[in-house]
Amino acid sequence: MPRTFAGSQEPVAGRWAIVVARYNETITGKLLAGAVDTLTTRGVADGDIDVLWVPGAFELPVVAERLAAGRRYRAILCLGAVIRGETTHDQHINRAVSLGLAESARHWGVPVLFGVLTCDSLEQALNRSGGTVGNKGAECASAALEMASLLAQLPS
Ligand code: INI
User: Fold this and answer.
1) I need a labelling partner for 119 at 20 to 30 A (CA). Which of 22, 89, 146, 156 fits?
2) Residue 107 annotated among the catalytic residues of the structure
3) What's the 58 CA to ligand 1 centre distance in angstroms?
4) Would you kindly state where each structural domain of the chain is located, as residue ranges?
5) Which of 82, 117, 128 to mutate to test the pocket of ligand 1 (most atoms within 8 A of CB)?
6) pLDDT by residue (tens digit) across 71-102?
7) Which residues lie closer than 8 Å to 136 by C-beta, 6 or more apart?
8) What is the three-class DSSP state of 91?
9) Ligand 1: which of 20, 23, 118 to mutate, most ligand atoms within 8 Å of CB?
10) Domain 39-148 sits in CATH 3.40.50.960
């Protein structure tokens, strides 16, 4: 019989960080609300959640790295909304952010969640921040709970 490890939605004790970009705040505010609602609905206390605002998505990795290095959080949820414009600016942001967050997660062994919408239009972003296609912030919170629970079960 194989020994199986799987995380659950039951919150492990500890603190949770949400780093959120102010750029496109009408969208990121909804992602934040979705993330906080999911965490608290599953049983995380409000007081165990720290929210940190950064100017734009590009600034998410430096804060995530600092928090991960401090080892105070069960998971670090990073939320942003990058919407394609007339130039390739969005591609540079998306690449730097996705690689940066993945690097911090791997290096420190802490779940660093990629809750950044990478959309072609405002409409796509609205649909993914509580509209017709769900809420990326809520999805991130659910993934954070599962990963924290799984990592807590693994031998160190
Ligand atoms: N930041 C975002 O979070 N979303 C965007 O769509 C965006 N666009 O399109 O420019 C954006 N730019 C700002 C960027 O994240 C940095 O804050 C800025 O470049 C300073 O480093």
Assistant:
1) 146
2) no
3) 6
4) 39-148
5) 82
6) 999 999 999 999 999 999 999 999 999 999 99
7) 31, 34, 79, 115, 116, 117, 128, 129
8) helix
9) 23
10) yes
